[in-house]
């Protein structure tokens, strides 16, 4: 009975979060029949039918793709709250996958296999990577790790802490649709605008808490200064604080020129110090993992205060 009371009391939420994180650490993402893969196929089918390049069509498509699953999660949760919360957060997390992708870039880069490192980093970034030098590959990898720390881990944890498993699911599905539809291209500029705005709204506070976590666990003075001065220069209201604080915390210089779809874009600077090298990818992974344990510690502290 004591165990059951513990799973239904003030420690239920942090224990569920810890269980989901451990499941992700042990097993990573589901290799076959991952729910997000099925969701992506459903979203693509909805977009194919509804995309008439209007905002209204995008709102309807977003609602049809997301709301039924969140409603189902809310309906199932009272039947087994702890189990449902653990499974939904586990499916929403991507900590192990993020670290594995980063390590797959760092390993060949540190061993001088630049072509392989370019190919690997091309799997996790949207910029063109064919002509990147060693510093360019390391920079792209560090930026991706820092930004996706929020998208793949901390955003889901934040909404889980507020709304349980259904909150984590809402965040993950909204973030997935932004990744699929949130582009300023002719096809998605209007249709994907709602998906992009919802993702911005859901990410606003988690991104700043992620940036604060990065700052607290590294060179905090540099991190806070970079966040304050560099983040406003970024078009994304959430990626700017996360990457600026993260790069400042690591003491590396990111940002600058990058090629997207064949065109060079000059982006504002991120962080301070020398250009990143292969070893800095490992340091970025360590920063992500330490931030994750910090968040779990805060969740248990909140549970203790409620108890």
TrEMBL record:
Its main location: membrane. It is a multi-pass membrane protein. It holds the Pfam family CobD_Cbib. Keywords: Cell membrane, Cobalamin biosynthesis, Membrane, Transmembrane, Transmembrane helix. It is found in: Cell membrane. Pathway: Cofactor biosynthesis; adenosylcobalamin biosynthesis. The keyword Cell membrane applies. The chain crosses the membrane at residues 6-23, 55-76, 152-174, 287-306. InterPro entries: Cobalamin_biosynth_CobD/CbiB. Converts cobyric acid to cobinamide by the addition of aminopropanol on the F carboxylic group. Belongs to the CobD/CbiB family. This is Cobalamin biosynthesis protein CobD. It comes from Azonexus hydrophilus. The gene is cbiB.
């Amino acid at each position: 009975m004591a165990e059951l009371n513990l799973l239904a009391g003030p420690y239920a939420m942090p224990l569920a979060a810890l269980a989901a994180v451990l499941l992700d650490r042990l097993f990573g993402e589901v290799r076959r029949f991952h729910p997000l893969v099925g969701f992506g196929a459903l979203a693509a089918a909805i977009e194919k039918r509804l995309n008439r390049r209007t905002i209204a069509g995008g709102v309807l498509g977003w609602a049809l793709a997301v709301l039924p699953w969140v409603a189902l999660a809310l309906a199932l949760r009272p039947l087994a709250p702890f189990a449902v919360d653990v499974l939904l957060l586990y499916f929403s997390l991507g900590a192990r996958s993020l670290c594995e992708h980063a390590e797959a870039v760092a390993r060949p880069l540190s061993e001088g296999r630049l072509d392989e490192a370019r190919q690997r980093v091309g799997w996790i970034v949207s910029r063109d990577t064919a002509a990147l030098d060693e510093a360019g590959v390391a920079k792209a990898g560090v930026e991706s790790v820092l930004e996706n720390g929020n998208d793949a881990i901390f955003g889901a944890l934040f909404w889980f802490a507020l709304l349980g498993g259904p909150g984590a699911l809402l965040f993950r599905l909204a973030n997935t649709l932004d990744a699929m539809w949130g582009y300023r291209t002719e096809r998605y500029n209007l249709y994907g605008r709602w998906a992009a705005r919802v993702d911005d709204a859901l990410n606003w506070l988690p991104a700043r808490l992620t940036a604060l976590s990065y700052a607290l666990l590294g060179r905090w003075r540099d991190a806070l200064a970079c966040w304050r001065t560099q983040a406003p220069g970024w078009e994304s209201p959430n990626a700017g604080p996360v990457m600026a604080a993260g790069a400042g915390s690591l003491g590396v210089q990111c940002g600058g020129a990058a090629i997207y779809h064949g065109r060079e874009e000059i982006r504002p600077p991120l962080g301070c110090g020398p250009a990143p090298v292969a070893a800095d990818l490992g340091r970025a992974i360590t920063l992500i993992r330490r931030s994750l344990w910090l968040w779990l510690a805060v969740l248990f502290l909140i549970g203790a205060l409620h108890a």
